Amino acid sequence: MKKAQLQTLVNSLIPKFYSFAFALVPDELQAEQMVIDAYAVFVVREKNFISKFKYTDDKKEKSIFKKYIMSHMINEIYKMGVKRSSQLRILGSRDHGQFESFYNLKTNQRAVLFLKESFNYSIETIQDTLRLEKYQVIETLYNGRQSILAVNDLPENNSRGFKSV
Amino acid sequence: MFNEVEDLNPKRERIIKDGRYLSRGLVNAYLDERLKPAQKKKFEALVGDLEELKEELRVKSETKEFIAELIPHPQISKSSTNNLKVELADITETVIGDDKLSVSEKLVKFLDKTILEF
């Protein structure tokens, strides 16, 4: 695979990398830095594979490689986010408006909820990407949703006690 | 292997009609779109004309939508995008770039470097 091809593909994914990083560590500079660090780890570790990968114009191949990059990058950003969000302690220092309850969740809950709701990932894809067991993904998703519901009032026509989601 | 839909604890199941059973896990799996097409079809056939269950599904679905609205979708600024493009290109160049050079190209690159400047 040529450098230019890799760069074009990576550039198209920058908004996704950044939005996931920001969901874990809501600070512009920190989110940028996490994307840079995750990419450095990814390229160094997967250098041989990237160099040997025969990248053609085939849509299927492009899609496979895109998924491969996404999976590695999201996993790296996740691992960094878990460590850095607790080290930086910046989560409580900003006003996040309607998203306050989301940013008050544990980092792993934010990661799973974000991938499910924002990226529309299936449980299986989240499981593969974050290297978790299926029950862990479902449990984290459930607990995250319950924590959000605990501090936000449901609309009036939706309060018949079916809060379990 | 654990099958979340079929192996759910039967104690959590309840009779909904004529001896038919439905678990909360199955309802959640349906709402999360975790059911396979055949399972989904079976589930929908099971719910059928049961108004109470339809209502519960509606409320649960709305609750999920309500939660989804509380999940942010951070947008990247133009300056951050440009900055990241430069930084990531630099990493690609540093890590992968040199491997693509032939010996002569490496030599030219080395000789082209300024070691001492007067």
Furnish the topology, listing elements before pairings:
The complex is a heterodimer of chains A (165) and B (118).
Chain A: H1 3-24, H2 28-52, H3 59-88, H4 100-103, H5 107-117, H6 123-130, H7 134-151
Helix pairs in contact in A: 1-2, 1-3, 2-3, 5-7, 6-7
Chain B: E1 13-17, E2 20-23, H1 24-31, H2 37-47, H3 51-69, H4 78-95, H5 103-111
Antiparallel strand pairs in B: 1-2
Fill in the keyword field for this structure:
heterodimer; A: 165 residues; mainly alpha; 7 helices; B: 118 residues; two-stranded antiparallel sheet; 2 strands; 55% helix; 8% strand; disordered N terminus
Quickly describe the structure.
The complex is a heterodimer of chains A (165) and B (118). With 165 residues, chain A is mostly helical.
Helix content of chain A: over 70%
* Helix/strand order of chain B: EEHHHHH
Mean pLDDT of chain B: 74
SS field, number of helical segments of chain A: 7
Oligomer: heterodimer
Shape of chain B: elongated
Order of SSEs of chain A: HHHHHHH
Most extensive chain interface and residues per partner = A-B, 55 and 43 residues
Task: Describe this protein's structure.
The complex is a heterodimer of chains A (165) and B (118). Chain A has helices at residues 3-24, 28-52, 59-88, 100-103, 107-117, 123-130, 134-151. Helices cover 72% and strands 0% of the residues of chain A. Chain A is built from 7 helices and no strands. Mean pLDDT of chain A is 86; it is low at 159-164. With 165 residues, chain A is mainly alpha-helical. Chain B has 118 residues and is mostly helical. Chain B has helices at 24-31, 37-47, 51-69, 78-95, 103-111, and strands at 13-17, 20-23. A two-stranded antiparallel sheet of chain B has the order 1-2. The N and C termini of chain B lie far apart (72 Å). Chain B contains 5 helices and 2 strands, in the order ββααααα. At the A-B interface, α1, α2, α4, α5 and α7 of A face α1, α3 and α4 of B.
